[in-house]
Amino acid sequence: MANSPIIQGFRDGLAAGDLLLQKCNSCQQLNMYPRYACPHCQSDDLGWQKAAGTGTLMSVTVLRAGGPEGFEQEIPYALGIVKLDEGVQLLGRMAPDEDGEWASYACDQRVTFQPARDKTYANFGHAE
């Protein structure tokens, strides 16, 4: 998967096992997904902040067929929209249950970031 300079910091964080959020050094607002300019004040003075990694599952879906190009061999997998405790939302993969399925996930459930073996996407699982 090609790396764009705009997401390099995010990917570097994942490779180190950390979930990083883009933070504007001018207005101190957090952004997700990474941008070239802050959506709050338009500053291009942007950095990164480590997220606590906990949040609430807003939506979840399991993809069993018709994966996008480059992901066909990974089917099935689950995607969830997670609202992090820091206030931003992001799309991430959901770790499967012990049986390899995702039936135990439900909206409004607490989830936590789990470093993924692939290290190119955020992975979440059940909060302890």
List the helices and strands and how they pair.
Elements lengths: L7 H8 L4 E5 L5 E2 L14 E5 L3 E10 L13 E8 L4 E6 L15 E4 L9 E4 L2
Number of helices: 1
- What number is the mean pLDDT? 90
SS strand fraction: 25-35%
What is the molecular shape? globular
Number of strands: 8
Helical/strand content category: mainly beta
Termini Cα gap: 32 Å
Output the strand order for the largest sheet. 4-5-6-8-7
Domain ChsH2 C-terminal OB-fold: 48-111
Domain ChsH2 rubredoxin-like zinc ribbon: 11-46
Protein name: OB-fold domain-containing protein
Pfam family, one: zf-ChsH2
Give an overview of the whole structure.
By secondary structure, the chain is mostly beta strands. Helices cover 6% and strands 34% of the residues. It contains 1 helix and 8 strands; from the N terminus they run αββββββββ. The chain has a 5-stranded mixed beta barrel. A hairpin with a 4-residue loop joins strand 5 and strand 6. The radius of gyration is 15 Å and the shape is globular. The N and C termini lie far apart (32 Å). The mean pLDDT is 90. It holds the Pfam family OB_ChsH2_C. It comes from Sphingomonas echinoides.
